[in-house]
Design goal:
The protein is about 40% helix and about 15% strand. By secondary structure, it is of the alpha/beta class. The protein has a domain of about 210 residues: Rossmann fold. The chain has a seven-stranded parallel β-sheet, with helices on both faces. A three-stranded mixed β-sheet has the order 12-9-14. Strands 7-10 form a two-stranded parallel ribbon. Helix 6 links the parallel strand 5 and strand 6. About 50% of the residues are buried. Bound molecules: UDP-4-deoxy-4-formamido-beta-L-arabinopyranose. UDP-4-deoxy-4-formamido-beta-L-arabinopyranose binds next to helix 7 and strand 8.
Length: about 350
């Protein structure tokens, strides 16, 4: 039976679709292209020599979901579809609650109505708010989220935990991503944010390729080894392989399990600039500016639970992330726009 991947044309979704196809799974993608390009799927098909069954539309479209489920005998779903800009969510909270929470409720209702019980949900380390204890474990305190995006992810986590309690047939895996970065080594698929990137790595990539003049480093007075923000950057292919590992894991305990997908290492903004310059042989001009509202000083994962239960660990280091990010950007200065 094929795996339904919602948001499968997006950054993490497309890399996961590629990994699934390479592992021999059949894949159905549902995507509304609000922040993705069909071109990514076309390139995945040429990379793998395998076809993807594709539907354009919204997760909240019940009739479309019913048709997809019926036409493809779906039994497992990986749910990426959603909006993910922290800054946009502050300006348009209802858009985020509608797309990230309400659409997820429709998906869960239609899954149960169609006897589909296996779901992997794309969550985020943002649910930890301002981390109390670093490195973060799955049992670390969540909440105190500083933006509607993070709150929407936490709301869906709560909904999934409650649904799992009420419906023992459900088999739910929640994956909390830290900071995805990099691209497939071919440079054919990668991160293609709409407009000016909010995230550090695509911003640095666009400075390196000449699309942006310089990087603003948000804050130089954090209590970290060099005063700049520290995060747990994880190669998007490691993240993709973590989803395959979650799909293959046969639950032995709770029917709703949560895992951090991170490397367990923290790197600062200046560490990333240095690594990117080494890998791209370019110079990244930057200037220190004020801290960005809502940012935390440092955040990285304790990845032990995923290693123990999913038999998965990140294997790619910072240099490989920066090399692959540069390779994608250099080959696709305008992303998927042809
Ligand atoms: C990383 C570091 C910034 C841009 C967010 C979401 C999270 C996840 C990943 C979806 C911080 C600094 C950044 C820039 C900078 N997304 N920075 N100049 O904020 O850790 O996490 O994206 O799941 O949910 O919250 O990632 O890449 O925006 O920032 O100095 O132009 O780079 O201050 O220290 P963040 P980021």
């Amino acid at each position: 039976m094929p795996i339904l991947v919602t948001g499968g044309a997006g950054y993490i979704g497309s890399h996961t679709v590629l990994s699934l196809l390479e592992k021999g799974y059949d894949v159905v993608v549902l995507d509304n292209h609000s922040n993705s390009s069909y071109e990514s799927l076309r390139r995945i098909e040429s990379l793998t020599g395998r076809n993807v069954i594709y539907y354009e539309g919204d997760v909240s479209d019940r009739l479309l979901l019913k048709r997809i489920f019926k036409d493809n005998k779906v039994k497992q779903i990986i749910h990426f579809a959603g909006l993910k800009s922290v800054s946009e969510s502050v300006v348009l909270p209802l858009k985020y609650y509608e797309n990230n929470v309400m659409a997820s409720i429709v998906l869960i209702e239609e899954m149960i109505a169609n006897n589909i019980f296996e779901l992997i949900f794309s969550s985020s380390a943002t649910v930890y708010g301002n981390p109390a204890d670093i490195p973060l474990k799955e049992i670390s305190k969540v909440g105190g989220t500083t933006n509607p995006y993070g709150t929407s992810k936490l709301m869906v986590e709560h909904i999934l935990n409650d649904v799992a309690k009420s419906c023992p047939q459900m088999d739910i895996t929640i994956l909390r991503y830290f900071n995805p970065a990099g691209a497939h080594s071919s440079g054919l698929i990668g991160e293609d944010p709409n407009g000016i990137p909010c995230n550090l790595v695509p911003y640095i990539s666009q400075v390196a390729v000449g699309k942006l003049p310089k990087l603003s480093v948000y804050g130089h007075d954090y209590p970290t080894h060099d005063g700049t923000g520290v995060r747990d950057y994880i190669h998007v292919m490691d993240l993709a392989e973590g989803h395959v590992a979650a799909l293959q894991h046969k639950a032995s305990r709770s029917n709703c399990r949560t895992y951090n997908l991170g490397t367990g290492k923290g790197y600062s903004v200046l560490d990333l600039i240095a690594a990117f310059e080494r890998q791209s042989n370019t110079n990244i001009p930057y200037e220190f500016v004020e801290r960005r509202a809502g940012d935390v000083a440092e955040c990285w994962a304790n990845p032990d639970l995923a290693r123990q239960e999913l038999k998965w660990s990140a294997t790619r280091g910072l240099d490989e992330m920066m090399r692959d990010a540069w390779n994608w950007q250099q080959k696709n200065p305008d992303g998927y726009k042809i």
